[in-house]
Specification:
Number of domains of chain B: 2
Helix content of chain B: 25-40%
Radius of gyration of chain A: 24 Å
CATH superfamily of the largest domain in chain B: P-loop containing nucleotide triphosphate hydrolases
Strand content of chain B: 25-35%
Helix content of chain A: over 70%
CATH architecture of the largest domain in chain B: 3-Layer(aba) Sandwich
Shape of chain B: elongated
Largest interface: A-B, 37 and 43 residues
Radius of gyration of chain B: 23 Å
Number of strands of chain B: 13
Number of helices of chain A: 23
Strand content of chain A: under 5%
Oligomer: heterodimer
């Protein structure tokens, strides 16, 4: 039995060496966000009365759909409510990516085979990946707790918040552990685990605005129901821990029953010759990118419908429009006029950033093709570099447009169906969603520029996207200086609906994107491949 | 005779290291040219420059009368390339990859493709991730050979093939080069393959071409092993220029001799009276090992 795990220690050390920058950065970001939010709320709402007022606004169904319910009127509970979802999603993503990177991705690249022939046991890679991801989650949880205690809020809440985050990280590490055994491709494994996360988020959103029991089906819902700073319910922690045990056991069982390199989902044979459409860079890009695009279309259609559906409840329950102070606060969360409009503007802001994750994935596929050696044979045919790049970039640019359109239409349908105004709401929300497009293209441009000029640093595009997300979510809240907030292209998108539509900033964004594309593609034409 | 490939003084620097250090290479149109050298000698870098995937730091390269960097599209419709390390798309079948590459090259002969799949015994319905290294190489080879091209650039194309398939590969290359004006540049470590296929050979070491010529010419550069039974003792053999590793036992001598000194040494032996004599031509292995060893010793 011991032999099955031998070599785990070396693999953990190797993983720490490989991730020596990545993981510490994540831990620090995860630790800073809650404490920073708490400190800022403290200065924003110094009195009990101001807390009461703002909390009244926050119990409206739209923000509950986004962030979950607010369990108590207190500084700690408000902080946990505001930052909780962001923090939970981030820690789950870190766990998923860490596990997949150190298990299935290594296996797919064939590096694990190299190690597997040495004194590395069958369970070593999975164990090492789980240890790395779990360790990151636990350390993050610990630092979150320490940070929250540092703000002077009750220690019990701080402990509950740290534990909530840590066990959620552990739970998604275990989910990713199972996903990594199911398929032969790391991309698909991450996709499965992230789909579970997205599903958990949506279940919680449905449950929190409708039948409560639905939230109890979701690991994200469990984490919130630990209720830090609002009469903590410690026993709820047992639910994610049970999930950890179940998924870990399943992952080990699966490892024990499969060959190295194989998945659980068997390979079907493909066609002996190619369809006529597979004749050039565009046909190839379609084959390589269609699965990703389809998954995103489904995800954003669901997300748009849930978010749009929640908006109508707001319109019927909103009684806050006469309170100027609260309106100012809401303006921070998205847009200036009317709660429903502010909510929808915030939603479309989030949808814009979310869809950009697809944009970046589709753009950076070019670099993956290059480093894997699959680009080289293509460029020894008549196909030129720019034509090849155009195939993938078409998906990055128009694929994103499709995703935003799908999200806008499904939000419009869900909202319009309740408001009996489908004909009016669908085109309106389609426009509100598509206004995000130029900003997403700027991120695509960043990816192309790095790919053409500094190809080794393409991953910085992800850092740029995460920075945009944090600036949108908490930038104003943390009181960051305006020029930093303005660095995000999403800061310049007109906040629709609600604000006046202005075309100038969009043209500027398009110009920036075009310049980045031009620079990147010029660099790509001139540089060495490989 | 025109040349399919010429490079002069090709230099490629990667940061501080020099991948190529003034490489000269000439491949005549219509020949199969062996490209040999130890790992890291610069073979792959040279091929990548010839394919327009990299730009040389200095020097010039001409391919089929054009510039590989600027005339890529026109040149690439006339050539095919097989990399040493073939990676395929995990979700595309081998047959799909063959068709895709053929179409992107400007069309291919479906009959020839079917015949090649048959000869190489490839299952074209398997997905990319299910193929072994050898089978991935077969996919790339079939894709390259199914197109109607005049130049093949092959970078260690058989390193994963079994002996049976290696034999098929040789036949296919012989058939390819039999037609007028077709050229092959074959980078390889398998000496039997080079010996069987190549008209001329270039040996590279540390980014430079150190020998070029036909195999016969190259053999002249190395030593012949002589073993002789003489009528009487022979004197002064050890002091003759070009004689190495002399072992004498009564009237029996054996030694190695450099090609230029062979005549002088034989005269010396004849003077002493030769009863029997065997001479062994240098093997290709010895030839290469001599050059490879120098590379290691540097």
């Amino acid at each position: 039995m011991r032999g099955l795990f031998s070599g785990t220690g070396s693999l953990v050390r190797l993983g720490l060496r490989l991730d020596r920058v990545r993981l510490p950065v994540w831990v620090v970001v995860l630790a800073i966000l809650p404490a920073g939010t708490a400190a800022n709320y403290k200065s924003l709402y110094p009195t009990e009365r101001s807390l009461q007022e703002v909390s009244g606004v926050l119990t409206n169904p739209s923000l509950v759909a986004l962030n979950g319910p607010l369990f108590k009127v207190s500084l700690g509970a408000l902080t946990a409510w505001k930052i909780g979802v962001t923090e939970l999603i981030l820690i789950a993503l870190v766990a998923v990516f860490t596990v997949v990177r150190h298990s299935r991705a290594e296996e797919e690249a064939g590096r694990l085979e190299l190690l597997g022939a040495t004194v590395v046991g069958r369970y070593a890679a999975l164990t090492a990946a789980l240890v790395l991801a779990g360790g990151t989650a636990v350390v993050s949880g610990l630092l979150i707790t320490l940070g929250m205690i540092g703000t002077g809020l009750p220690a019990a809440g701080a402990v509950a918040m740290g534990l909530e985050m840590a066990v959620t990280g552990l739970a998604f590490a275990a989910v990713a552990g199972v996903a990594a055994q199911l398929t032969e491709s790391a991309r698909a494994a991450s996709g499965i685990a992230i789909a579970v996360l997205g599903g958990a988020y949506l279940l919680r959103a449905v449950g929190d605005t409708g039948p409560t029991w639905v939230s109890w089906l979701s690991p994200v819902g469990w984490a919130m129901r630990v209720r830090p700073y609002a009469t903590e319910r410690w026993w709820v922690l047992l639910l994610p821990l049970a999930l950890v045990c179940g998924c870990t056991a399943a992952a080990y069982r699966l490892v024990g029953h499969r060959d190295l390199g194989a998945g659980m989902v068997a390979q079907r044979p493909g066609p002996a010759s190619a369809a006529p459409s597979l004749a050039g860079p565009l046909g190839l890009a379609w084959r390589l990118q269609r699965g990703l695009l389809l998954a995103w279309v489904v995800g954003l259609a669901l997300g748009g419908a849930v978010m749009g559906g929640a908006a109508h409840g707001l319109a019927t329950s909103g009684t806050f429009t006469d309170n100027q102070q609260l309106m100012d606060m809401l303006a921070r969360l998205g847009g200036p006029k009317g709660i429903v409009e502010a909510y929808l503007a915030a939603i479309f802001g989030i949808i814009g950033i979310t869809a950009t994750a697809y944009t970046v994935q589709a753009t950076l596929r070019m670099r993956a093709e290059e480093t894997s050696g699959r680009l080289e044979p293509l460029l020894t045919t008549r196909t030129g570099r720019l034509r090849w790049a155009a195939g993938h970039l078409l998906f990055a640019l128009l694929g994103t447009a499709l995703l935003l359109a799908v999200a806008g239409v499904s939000a419009g349908l869900a909202y319009g169906a309740q408001a009996h105004d489908i004909g009016g709401q669908v085109p309106r929300m389609l426009g509100d969603a598509l206004v995000q497009l130029p900003a997403t293209w700027v991120l695509a441009g960043l990816g192309v520029a790095l790919f053409g000029l500094l190809p080794r640093l393409v991953a910085v595009t992800w850092a740029g996207l995460i920075a945009c997300f944090l600036l949108l979510e908490v930038g104003a809240l943390l009181g960051l200086s305006q020029w930093l907030v303005d660095a995000s292209p999403f800061a310049h998108v007109p906040k629709l609906p609600g604000s006046a539509f202005t075309v100038t900033p969009l043209l500027w964004l398009l110009a920036v994107a075009a310049a980045l594309f031009a620079g990147g593609l010029a660099g790509f034409r001139r540089r060495d491949i490989g | 005779m025109s040349d399919a490939i010429t490079t002069t003084g090709l230099v490629k620097e990667f940061g501080r290291t020099r991948g190529l250090d003034g490489l000269d290479l000439t491949v005549h149109t219509g020949e199969v040219h062996g490209f040999l050298g130890p790992n890291g000698a610069g073979k792959t870098t040279t091929i990548r420059i010839l394919l327009g995937l990299m730009r040389p730091t200095a020097g010039t390269a001409t391919l089929l009368g054009g510039d590989p960097w600027t005339d890529t599209a026109t040149l690439h419709s006339r050539l095919a390339y097989v990399p040493g390390d073939v990676t395929l798309w995990p979700n595309l079948s081998g047959g799909e990859v063959i068709d895709l590459l053929g179409r992107m090259r400007g069309g291919f002969d479906a009959k020839r493709k079917a015949a090649l799949i048959e000869r190489f015994d490839l299952d074209p319905t398997k997905k990319g991730r299910a193929y072994s290294k050898g089978n991935r190489q077969k996919v790339a080879l079939i894709a390259a050979l199914a197109s109607d091209v005049e130049l093949l650039l092959l970078d260690e194309p058989t390193s994963g093939l079994d002996p049976l398939m290696e034999e098929v590969f040789r036949q296919v290359i012989v058939e390819f080069s039999r037609e007028e004006g077709r050229t092959v540049l074959l980078s390889s470590h398998i000496l039997a393959e080079v010996e069987a296929l190549c008209d001329r050979v270039t040996i590279v070491r540390a980014g430079r071409a150190v020998e070029t010529g036909t195999l016969t010419e190259l053999r002249h550069l190395t030593r012949t092993a002589i073993s002789a039974e003489l009528s009487g003792p022979v004197d002064g053999l050890a002091t003759l220029a070009g004689v190495h590793d002399l072992r004498a036992h009564n009237s029996h001598v054996s030694f190695d001799v450099d090609a230029p000194a062979l005549g002088e040494v034989l005269r010396h032996l004849t003077d002493a009276g030769v009863r029997s004599l065997t001479s062994q031509p240098p093997t290709l292995e010895e030839l290469f090992l001599r050059h490879y060893d120098k590379a290691a010793a540097r």
